[in-house]
Amino acid sequence: MRKRSLLWLLVGILVIVLVVLFYTFRVEEKKEEGTPTPAVSEAVKPQKKWLIGFAQSTMIDPWRINMLMQMKDAVEEHKEEIDFIYTDAKNDNNKQIADVQDLVTRGIDLLIISPREAEPLTPIVSEVYRKGIPVITLDRNIVTTDYTCFIGASNLEIGRKAGERMVEELGGKGVVVEIEGILGATPTIERSKGFHEVVDKYKEIKVVLKRPADYLREPARKIMEDALQAHKKIDGVYAHNDEMALGALAAAKAVGKDKGMVIIGIDGQKEAFKAIMRGEMSATYIYPNGSREAIETALKILKGEKVPKHISLPTVEVTKENVEKYYDPNAYF
Amino acid sequence: MEMGKAIWERYKVALGLIILLVLSAIVSPDFVRPTNIQNVVQRISIIGILAIGMTFVILSGGIDLSVGSLLAASACLTAGAIKYYHLPVGIAIMIGLLGGAFFGFLNGIFITKGKMQPFVITLALMTSARGFAFLYTNGQPITLEPTDVPLIINLGLGKIANVIPVQTLIFAVVALLAFLMLRFTTFGRYVYGLGGNEEAVRLSGVNVERIKTLIYTVSGLLAGLGGILMVGFQNGLANANFGLGYELSAIACVVIGGTSLAGGVGGVGNTVIGTLIIGILDNILNLKGVGTYIQEMVRGAIIIFAVYISKRRE
């Protein structure tokens, strides 16, 4: 008897799976049926919609989820002209290569890709580009010039600005903890490099601890707890993103050592803005994801307009002075 | 009736694969395009090779959680030998393979001589081997100039006659060798025996410890091979964060194929089918543009379903 009910459960699961598969199938069919109906006058030919494919590198951190959400919003504004599909590489280069292949198999007219790492994704992106499919590289680039347009901000520049800020706030001396992102990832390397280019010139600023917390809040909190155990006084924290800055802040708060501590983050997350308003964090840098620009640029390319090879997104330093201007309680991120 | 049941038992996993193939072809006309099939068989090869090693381990009643990390360690060892020590590519590949095998050997030694649980030991090696990879590379990715290492690039990205990916060919050869080993050698019989009744094998005078150590060494060696292919597939990049979570994918391939986690039942053929099922599933979900979160749910559901179907009669 029990065995039979388990079987029913499994059949139920299978049905759900099939429904999901067929549902996605249906949506497409409907669209195909819809276009040839000659309701409009024959002079206005129903235009074929372009299919844009987006190969995202991961969907577990808020910044990247936000990137996709905003991209979908931008697509929505042009939904008469474009269809949109995306894939999630789950932080795995191999999976992203496979994803790009699948998008091409689906017949995309333009590829937007945020490569997880440059070298591994270069051959496949080159291949796509040489097939005549335009490619926009977003946030991170490939190593050759086989792409139509790169859109991104400079992590090196942000690192330098954060370094300058740290020096200024500390008056050129103090004990600093650096909480890094994912080891070996380009943003981590550049955010660290830019920071040290500035800070290392000041002998009296000592970076006593440099640890990775993978851009996540909880690991950052633990690192900061340990750092507070090991060092009597910590004057500054430089975290490679706001999530980790907030983690460090929580650790410092828990032992009452957050007063006067200079905490700097990157990304421009809503919560970090709030912390800046309360005076708990010193600064963050809006690291734009460029999703809206990507869709706008994609449309230009598809319409045959010329676009620059490199679009540099501006980064903004957000401090107590200007935070009100950027805080949006309804933002996704 | 009895015979019908026997045939069903034998071929139900293969039947599952065929149903999936037909279903995929129906829902997506893109699926059957030759380039797509090429893509799918190429991308399952590395996981497939790990899963073959895992098949030996699981058949013997063990588990190997370290393969993802061993893959990373071997990839870094090989790339590092070229980049840091300027060794010839052939020797660098040997170093990577031997490195993987050595870590696997350590697994085996700790499990047999130390009489410790495979789960615990391979979990420990999973951490240590990855730590080693990070230490060895200083946490920075190693990039090899593709034109300097054509052999490695070809292993990962090459296609024979522009049709069959080299990776896939290697996977096929490994699978065939493993099949022959399990089917026709005494070693193969002992592997099944260990999973069925370890005590009986021991009592019949077989050196169980040696067999077990060899099994984990093979698994490590194949993880090493996977690591080298990965460097090629990623155009000459080696990174200590390679292969995160691959151990679980490899285990999934083995289990979906119908090999019992309790050991003693199953085989290489099952694993190849399991690997194909997972690869095709990922492909078709992508082709249909199914959202990433739904994909995760569907994948889990399929695993439950496949394992239930492939369960043998008690």
Sheet/helix structural class of chain B: mainly alpha
Q: Main sheet of chain B, how many strands, which sense, barrel?
A: 2 strands, antiparallel
Unreliable segments of 5+ consecutive residues of chain A:
27-45
- Going by CATH, the architecture of chain B would be Orthogonal Bundle
> How far apart are the first and last residues' alpha carbons of chain B, in Å?
18 Å
**Strand portion of chain B:** under 5%
Percent in helix of chain A: 40-55%
Extended strand count of chain B = 4
Strand order of the largest sheet of chain A: 2-1-3-4-5-11
Average pLDDT of chain B works out at 91
Give the chain pair forming the largest contact, with residue counts.
A-B, 39 and 46 residues
Helical stretch tally of chain A: 11
Mean of residue pLDDT values of chain A: 87
Quickly count the domains of chain A. 2
Q: What form of chain B results from the Cα inertia axes?
A: globular
**Which fold name corresponds to the CATH topology of the largest domain in chain A?**
Rossmann fold
The portion of residues forming beta strands of chain A comes to 15-25%
Structural class of chain A: alpha/beta
Relevant CATH superfamily of the largest domain in chain A: Response regulator
- What portion of residues of chain B is helical? over 70%
Task: Give structural attributes.
A: 333 residues; alpha/beta; Rossmann fold; 4-stranded parallel β-sheet; 47% helix; globular; B: 314 residues; mainly alpha; ABC transporter involved in vitamin B12 uptake, BtuC; two-stranded antiparallel ribbon; 13 helices; 4 strands; 74% helix
